[in-house]
Amino acid sequence: MNKMVLIGAVAGALLLGGGGAAFYFTSIAPPVAEEAQVDTRTNLYVEVPPVVANFEYEGSMRYLQVTVNLQTRSATSATLMKDNAPLIQGEMLMLLQDLDFATVRTTEGKRALIDAIDAGVRELFQSGAEPLELEQVVLTGFVVQ
C-alpha cells in the first residue's frame, strides 16, 4: 500500500509539474508585433506663394524664386497653414537670405533648404493649442536669374 501511495504521489507531482511548466512557457510567449498603423487620410497640399530673394554672386546681382507646397493630412493643419501663409513666407525669406547662392543651386543645397523650411515652419507653430501635422515640404518651383 505504501508503494501505491508513493507511486500516486510521484505521478501527481509529475502531472502538476508538467502542467505548471506548460502554463509557464505559454504565458511568456514573445509579444506579437503590432501592425503599423497606416494613415488613410487624403493628402492635402497648401501652396505657399513664391518667395524671392536676391544675392550678389560673382560681382552681379542674382535672384532666386522659391515656391513650396506643405503636405499634411489634417484639415485643421491645412487651414492653419493657409491662414498664416504670410508668416510662412516671411520665415522662408529669412532662411533664403542666410543661404550661400552657390550652395543652394546644388541638389544637396536644395535638400538642405527644404529641411530648413520644414524646421522653420514647425517652429512657427510649436506653441499652438493643437500640434501642427506637417508631413513634408515639397519644392514645386525654383527659379534662378
State the gist of this model.
By secondary structure, the protein is of the alpha+beta class. It is built from five helices and three strands.
Radius of gyration: 31 Å
Q: How many domain units?
A: 2
Helical coverage, percent range: 40-55%
Percent of residues in beta strands: 15-25%
In this structure, how is the largest beta sheet organized? 3 strands, antiparallel
What's the arrangement of strands in the largest beta sheet? 1-2-3
Discrete helix count: 5
Mean pLDDT: 84
Shape estimate = rod-shaped
How far do the termini sit from each other?
Answer: 107 Å
Runs with pLDDT <50, length 5+?
Answer: none
Write the H/E string, N to C: HEEHHHHE
Total beta strands: 3
Describe the overall structure.
It contains 5 helices and 3 strands, in the order αββααααβ. By secondary structure, the chain is of the alpha+beta class. It folds into 2 domains: 1-34; 44-144. It has a 3-stranded antiparallel sheet with strand order 1-2-3. Helix 3 crosses helix 5. The longest helix is centred in the N-terminal third of the chain and has 26 residues, at 2-27. The relative contact order is 0.16. The mean pLDDT is 84.
